[in-house]
Amino acid sequence: MDVLVLGPVQAWSDGVAVTVDRPLERAVLVRLALANRVPVPDGRLAEDLWGAEVERPVQRLRVVVSRLRAALGPLADVIGRTPAGYQATVSATDLLAAEAAAQRLHTARRAGDFGAVAAAAREALALWRGHALADLRTIPFAVAEGERLDDWRLSLTVAGLEANLELGAAGEVVTELTGLVARHPLHEPLSCLLALALYRTGRQADALERLARLRRALSEELGVDPSPDTSKLELRILDHDPALRASALPVAATVGSPAANPDVAPEIAPTEPTMEPEPRPWPAPVVVPMTSFVGRGREFATLTTRLAEPGLTTVVGVAGSGKSRLAAELARSIGQAGRPVVLVELAPLGRAEDVLPAVAAALEAGGLATDGSIDPNGPLPGIIAALDGDGGRALLVLDNAEHVLRSVAELVTAANGFSVLVTSQQPLGVPGESVYPLGPLDRSVGVALFIERAGLHGLVTATERDELVTICAAVDWLPLGIELAAGLTRTLTISQLAQRIDDRVRLLVGGARGAAGGRHTSLRVALDWSHELLADRERAVLRRLGVFAGGCTLEAAEAVVVPDGDLEPGDVAPAVADLVNRNLVTVQTDGATRRFVLLETVRDYALARLTEANEVEELRAGHLRWCLHLVRTIGAPDDFAAAESVAAVFVEWPNILAALERAPGTSRATDGLRLAVEMHVPWLARAWFREAQRHYAALTDAADIAAHELAQALSHYGFHTLMTGDLEAAAVQLAKAGELAAPLDDPELAQTVRYYQGIVDIERCRLPEAVERLREGERLAVRDTQGSSFADALGTALLYSGDPAEALAAYTRSCAVDAAHEDEHGLSRGLSNQAKALLGLGRVEEALATAEESDRYARRLDDRQILPLNDLTRAAAALAAGSLDAAESYCRAALGHEEDATGLARIDLADVLLAKGETAAARQLLDEFFAAAPGGVPLLAARAVSVALRHAEGDADGARALLEQVRAEFAAAGFGWHRYTDRLVTPGRTA
C-alpha cells in the first residue's frame, strides 16, 4: 500500500484508492508511514496525535488503531504491533520519491550540472498536490510536519530557480520569483535571487528597489537588518560588478529531505555573491575518486565553515565511515575557490619519521615551497614558512593519521595559527584541537548512495527498497560497507544480497580497487588496518567484546573478557578507553550508566578474530555464566516483584537472548536451562510465553541436569506452553514434572507442580478438580507468597464456576499478600481478576476503579496480557450499561493485542455486535474463532454467544437445539461464569 502525504492524504493499493474517513485514523496511518517501518512508542504516538496533556493516551490510541485496522479491511495487516510500539509496513512513497529527486539535485549541483539540477527540482515539485497533509492540519504532529514539508517545497523551488538563472533564463524566472516574493516578503534568499535576476535582465534600479523593500520589511516586521550577504549584493549591484554576470551561486549548497536528513535538507541561507573577485582554482590538483560524492552535505557545510578560519580540526570515525573521501572533497572544493590546499596521504607511510618529509614534498609539489627551500635534515621550520606564504591562507590536509599520531601532533602544534584538517580514527589530543566525529549515514542518504553506486536509478521496487534498508543497516550505514555491498550487485540480486548480508566481513572482502594501495578496498582490509594499530591488550579486549550482543557495561566486560588469566580485570578499563578513543567502540549513556557497544560490522570482525584465537567456546561460557549471575542478582531481593527489577533484566535482553540461543547442543546447555528457569518471572511479567516456550523446548532435552532442577524447568515449561493455548502439551510437560518431583521430598517443588496443574485444570475446563487442587495447594503453602499464587488461581476457578463472591474473597487474600510484598506483577494480575469478580457481583464502579489500578501496574511492567483483559472488563461494563459504541471500542482495543483468533476479545466483540444488530459481522468473528480450533473456557464462552447469534439470525429451532447442547457442556465442565451463562437464560439480551 502507498501513502501519499505531499498534499491531502491519499492511500492506494494496487491502483485502488483506500478510504480512511476519520482524521485520527488517517493521522495514525501517516505517522507510521513517515516512521518508515520503524516502530513508534505508544507514548510518542499518542502525544503526536493529541499533545502532551491527554487523559488515558494509550487506551485512546488502541481504540484509534483498532478503528484504523477495521477501516483498512483486508489490508489491516499493514499495521503491526512490536514490543517497541506500533509499526506499519507502508511508507510515504511520494515523499521518498521527492527525497530521491532532491538527492539527485544535490549531486548535480555539486557537479555544477545546472540542467540536471533544474530537472530534478521539477521532478520533485511535481509530486506536490497542494499543501502537505492539508487535511490533517488540526493534528499536532501534522501541523509541524506539514509546515516543514511546505518549507522544503519552497527550498526546492528556490533551487530550481537558481539553476534556471544559471542556465541564462533570467527573464523567465523573474515572473515566478515576483509571485513568490509577494507571498514570502521576509524570505531573504528569494528577494536576493529576484534582485539578481532583475539585474541580469538589465533592470538595475528594480533590483535595488527590491532589496530596499526587503530592508524595510525586515526592519518593520522583525526589527532586524539584512544579512551581510544581502548588503554585499546590494553594493555589488551598485558597482556594476562584472562578476554578477557570471555564476554567482556556490555549488556546495545543499537541498534535500526535510525529515531526519540534514545532509540534504538544510535551510537555504542567502547565497548571493560576495564582494571578492572571481576566485582562481588552486593549481595543485586534488585527486578524488571518479565516483560522485553522495551525502555528508551537513558535515561538508559545517567543516567548510570551520576551515575558513585558522585552527586544527580533526575528523574522527571508525574505519569505513568516509573520512578520507570527505577530506578529499573539502580539499577539492576549497582549492577550486582559489585557496592554496595541500593534501598529504599518510596511509602509505610506514614510519613516524616519514611524516615531515612527506608534508615537505607535498608543499613543494603544490607550489607553496620551492625546491630546496625546506631543509631535509630539519624540515619543520621550512614547512611552517611555506604554510605562512600567501598570507597564511593555505589549508593543510593530513589524511589517515591514526598510525603516526605522535609525529602529526608535533607538526600541528608547531603549525598553530594555520588551518589544518586531520582525519584519524582517534583525536590527536593536542591543545586547541576541534574534534568532529563522523558517524553513520542517515537512512535516506545511505539508500541513495547504494542506488547510485549500483547504477539502479529508477529501477528499485518498493520491496527492493525494504531490502536495501536491511543491507545498509547490516553494514551500520557506513559508506564503505554500502559501496562495497553495492558493488556485489554485479553478481547478486538485491534480494540475494539481503539474504546473505549477515556475514558482513566475509561477503565484503572483495570490491573495486581504489587508489590508496587497496587499503580501503574492502571492509575486512579497513578493519585489519585498525586492528594492526592496536597493542596486544587492546586486541584481546576488542575480540572478546564481540561475545556481547547489544553492548555491555564496564563491569560486565571485566567479568567476561579475562577468562584465562592473560589479562587482569584492571586491564579492561584502559583498554576500552583506548578502543573508544579509536572509534572502534561507541559509548551509550543512559543516566548514570554507560554501555560500550561495537558497531555490528566491527563486532563481526571481532568475532572472526575470536574464532582465529580459538577463544569462542571459552568466552561464550563466561558470557552465559555472567548472564545467569546477573539475572539471579537482580531477582534475589524481591523475586522480580518490582517493575524496576523486570526492566533491569530486559536492559540486557540482547545478551541474555544470545546466551540462550547459543547454548543448545553444547556443554553450556545445562547453564542455559538454568538461565531459562531464572527468566521465568520476567517472561511471565511481560507475557512473553511463546519466547519462553521456544527456549525451554530447545534446552530441556539437551541439558544434563539434576532431577529437581529438570522438574522445575518442566513445570515452568508447562506453564508457558499452557499460556500459549496448547493445553494438551502443557498437561504432558507437567505430568513429567510431577513424576520427577514425586520421589524427591521437596515440598516447594511439589507445590509448584500442583499450582501449574491447577491452572491446566482451569484452562481445560475441569473446574471442580481445579478448585479442589488449588484449595489444597493454598492450605499446604510453604510461604505466604506461594499461598497468594494459589489463592489467585483458586479465585479464577471459582469465578468460572459461577461463585463470584468466593472468587472475590480469594482474590482479596492474594492481593493482600502481594501488596505486603510490593509485588507489582501480582497486583497487576490480582487487581485485574478482582475487577472481574466485582463486575460479576454487579459492583460496576468498584470494578472499573480496580481495573484502572491494575492498569497502573501493568503499564509499569509493559504487561501486554493484563491490559487487554482490563479493556474487556470495561467493555462488559459498558455493554451492561447499554453503551454499545464504548463497548465495541474497548473490545477492538483488546483484540489488537491478541496473537491469534482463540482469545476472549473476539468472542466479546461478537457479543457486542449482536447487541448492535450487526449479525453478519458477529457471525464472521465467531467463524474465525471456531476455525482456529480453540479449547477451554474461550470455547465454552463462544458456544454461549453462538446461542444468542442463532436467535438473532431467526433460527429459533437451531438456537433451542444448541442451547441444550451448551447447557450439557457447561454442566459437565462445572462452568458457571455469569458473563456467559446469562446468554443461555436470555440469549437475545444485551446485558
Structure description:
The chain contains 46 helices and 13 strands. The longest helix is centred in the first third of the chain and has 27 residues, at 140-166. The chain has 991 residues and is mainly alpha-helical. Strand 9, helix 15 (405-414) and strand 10 (419-424) form a beta-alpha-beta unit.
User: Total strand count, please?
Assistant: 13
Largest sheet: 5 strands, parallel
What is the arithmetic mean of pLDDT? 82
Unreliable runs? 246-285, 509-521, 987-991
Short key terms for the protein model shown above:
single chain; 991 residues; mainly alpha; five-stranded parallel β-sheet; four-stranded mixed β-sheet; 6% strand; globular
Give the SSE layout:
Blueprint: E1 2-4, E2 10-13, E3 16-17, H1 23-34, H2 42-50, H3 57-72, E4 79-82, E5 85-88, E6 91-92, H4 93-110, H5 114-125, H6 140-166, H7 170-183, H8 188-200, H9 204-222, H10 228-238, H11 297-307, E7 311-316, H12 323-336, E8 341-345, H13 355-365, H14 379-388, E9 395-399, H15 405-414, E10 419-424, E11 433-437, H16 443-454, H17 462-474, H18 479-487, H19 494-500, H20 504-507, H21 523-532, H22 536-545, H23 554-560, H24 569-581, E12 586-590, E13 593-597, H25 600-612, H26 616-635, H27 643-651, H28 653-661, H29 669-678, H30 680-686, H31 689-699, H32 707-723, H33 727-741, H34 747-763, H35 767-779, H36 784-801, H37 804-820, H38 824-840, H39 844-861, H40 866-880, H41 884-895, H42 904-915, H43 919-931, H44 936-952, H45 956-973, H46 978-985
Parallel strand pairs: 1-6, 7-10, 7-11, 8-9, 9-10
Antiparallel strand pairs: 1-2, 2-3, 4-5, 12-13
Helix pairs in contact: 1-3, 2-3, 3-41, 4-5, 5-6, 6-7, 6-8, 7-8, 8-9, 9-10, 11-12, 13-14, 16-17, 16-18, 17-19, 22-24, 22-25, 23-24, 26-27, 26-28, 26-29, 27-30, 28-29, 29-31, 29-32, 31-32, 32-33, 32-34, 33-34, 34-35, 34-36, 35-36, 36-37, 36-38, 37-38, 38-39, 38-40, 39-40, 40-41, 40-42, ...
